[in-house]
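Researcher: Let's continue the batch. This sequence belongs to Cytochrome P450, and it's 465 residues. Same format as the previous ones, please.
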Amino acid sequence: MTLHSPDGSAVGGCPVEVFRLGGGPGETGGSGDHDDWWDRLREQHGPVVPVALESGVTAWLLLGYHENLTVLQSPHLFSRDTRRWREVTEGRVDLSAGRPALSWRPNALYADGSEHARLRAPIADSIARLDMGATSQLVRQIADDLVDAFVARGSADLIAEYADPLPVLVINRLCGLPDSYGRMLGDLTSIIFGEDPREAEDAVIRLQQYFAGLVVRKRKRPGADLVSWMLEHPAGLTEHEVAHQAALINNSSHQTTTHLIGNTMRTLLTDTRIRSAYADARISAQDLLDHVMWTDTPFQILPARFALQNMLLGNARVRAGDALLIGFHAAHRDPAVYKGRREETGVAGGSRAHLMFGAGPHACPARDLARMIAATAVEVLNERLSGLRSAVAPEELRSVRSPFVRGVEALPVLFRPGNAVGEKAKGEGTGTAGRNGTSGHEKESEDDILGRLLRWWRGSGRGRR
Ligand code: HEM
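Model: Same format as before. Here are the structure tokens for Cytochrome P450:
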């Protein structure tokens, strides 16, 4: 994405690469941790900057806190439906052409008004039915199992071996399947974000089979899980619709939670003041998460909203059909709201008014669940890994090469080798998890779509964990 000033000349005479439509990696500013870059952009252009996507396709990037909040909270002025984008209606952008961030799917995220309410209610009501005590024990059990796999080694990559698989394993269990399916789900999701487009295309089809198969199995044999609850919800969604909402739950929860955990652990490993405030219980795990959500947002740009009429927004003349990109990280650095860190502990704010869980009708329906998963994940690492320290200097940590996500590709750590707690944790976990999610004892040998998919995955040599 090259930024242009309103008169058409490139910013500062030097085009700044932010993100390329289609999800290609940005080169500089905005794709990593270049905080000054965001501040300079706001100083030069105000709270709303015009951006030109590489193909000449245009959008607005929102940098101001209040502008972001207004757009999120005004569904009568801004649609979430990508098909309303002028670039689409005038034929310059094809939403089906492999653009994961700017596509359209028949799920709540891309719907407006009453259709949004119809699709969202089964998701939100099912999440609300979860027994949070049992779910917290389930998360702890899954976190313990992941730690067990590397604790004796004295070293680990906290992204690949922990923060990345954990959310998928949790969601898979909350959807009522044993962990083998969760490991397959995590693997397929990673391939989608990987480097090989042919493999990614195949993984998308396999993931569709996973969610379709999950719904068929839960219709046949309902349990105390999110998918069974969505199927029985009075909104009366079809099986096809439930499969799409289940896929949305997985997509919405994965990278967001991974990088909230990853960025929080990076903060603890690199910021001694915050680390000692946390160790001395002057701040809680929840305070720590809020600090990270203010200062190191797990995703920094969220696509998108589409203007429903012409208007003046901040300093910008927005036209009906224009796309607006939500700029979380920039919004949180807006001097109008960001007042710096507290002297005593080093954490930002003390308020939960950050926008990290969105606002308005599409606000995250799983805010409490997400906070609990991330806080539990951080607590388990700190309890289980003594002498935990980074294995590399902070400047050696590589940022994720994505314009949207803000996190590190790997987080290598060292610690004193310890013992597994697996069997004890599993014994404790099975009973409580059974009140929501599977007990882990469901049969795996069934000859349905899911069973065949699992056999394919194992036979393909990918089922290595
Ligand atoms: C740290 C973790 C998470 C963060 C930061 C986060 C953030 C968000 C944000 C900002 C939105 C609004 C998107 C928009 O306005 O366009 C959203 C929506 C959503 N999130 Fe989360 N989320 C997280 C975890 C989860 C989890 C764990 C789940 C499910 C178990 C979940 C399910 C959803 C769903 C279904 C939506 C769509 C809601 C709608 O369109 O009405 N999220 N999330």
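Researcher: Any comment?
Model: The pocket of protoporphyrin IX containing FE is lined by residues 72, 80, 108-109, 120, 123, 127, 171, 248-249, 252-253, 256-257, 260, 298, 302, 356-358, 362-366, 369-370, 374 (CB under 6 Å).
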